[in-house]
Amino acid sequence: MKKKVLGGLLAVSMIATMGAFNVSVSAAEKDNADIKIGFSSKDNSDTFVAAIADAAEAEAKELGVELLMYDAGGDVNKQISDCETLLAAGVDALVVIPQSVEGSAPVVSMANDAGVPIIVDNGDIGDKNYTAFVGCTDQESGELLGKWFMEESGLEKGSKVAIIEGPMGQSGQVGRMAGFEEVGMLDYFDVVATQTANWKRDEAMALAEDWITTYGDDLKAIICENDDMGMGALSAAQAAGRDDIIIGGVDGLDDAVAAVKDGSYGVSVLQDSAGQGRVGVDVAVAAAKGEEVEPDTRIPFRPITKDNVDAYLEGGVDAISGDDAAAEDTTEEKTDEAADDTAAEDTTEEETK
User: Fold this and answer.
1) Tens of pLDDT along 246-296?
2) N or C: which end of the chain has fewer CB within 10 A?
3) What is the pTM of this model?
4) Do 247 and 225 touch, CB atoms closer than 8 A?
5) What is the distance between the alpha carbons of residues 144 and 180, in angstroms, rounded to a whole number?
6) What DSSP designation does 34 have?
7) In what order do the strands lie in the sheet containing 267-270?
8) Beta bridge partners of 221
9) Torsion of CA 300, 305, 310, 311, to 10 degrees
10) What fold does the segment set 138-270+305-324 form as a domain?
């Protein structure tokens, strides 16, 4: 399933699937210094999530608004309690990175009952009655990762692979597995093991160590739903002397990109943590002021591979955002060349006759 996306660090596709949110006139009169934003993060021990939180704090400081940051530490019940605390503190808008699609859903009705705009950031949530969403489409990253392993890794159909998943029921885990299914990766390979490592590097390393021992030389790849887990798997493979195992993941973490550069890591599907944190706060501030906001802001994923890693390291995401367009241009050029060749053949045949 092909998708067209826009390039650029904050190139986004605005999808108006819900009505814009409006609040009271008194809210519209607020100055930034009077605005208090609540931010509920799912787990800042996750490197990527921490990067979103850091970007949100930096943006709040830049805008001159107060930001109250709470970290659920991977506990959905704590996240609900944190949101109760933030709403009781009188925040003007609430930003939530959901710990669980369904488990975190009650925070939406809590915010609506309190008359507080709620911005869902980074991951999906079961209750869609939120003010706005800012983030990526998790299934897209699974599709891109799955297609890379099927088409560009050099692995043969039927190769034995293992999959390391995120926490079961979280948006990233659900969406990325759906992406693998969508592109047919689960049928293309012989998936010998699938298990969660909860986005954790150390847990993924332990899993990979066990799998390398269990499956030996038959194990050809470890496909990871994020780069923290991918780096853990890579450490295990290197310690075992298994440089032949192909490993890849999602997030575009610095050490993962460096590993793509040195050839030890196959692919890192970049998602823009800074953009998600920054835009999440921007939308929350606008909603707190009673301004109309885009209900659905999607920031595209970009695969970083050996073919474009140098461009990315030199110019950032802007430097690799034209890959789709370039591919389309190449296809068009080939089509034009084929048409020219056909025309030339027809002319030759006519001259022969």
Assistant:
1) 999 999 999 999 999 999 999 999 988 999 999 999 999 999 999 999 999
2) C
3) 0.75
4) no
5) 9
6) G
7) 190-196, 160-165, 219-224, 246-251, 267-270, 302-304
8) 161, 246
9) -30
10) Rossmann fold (3.40.50)
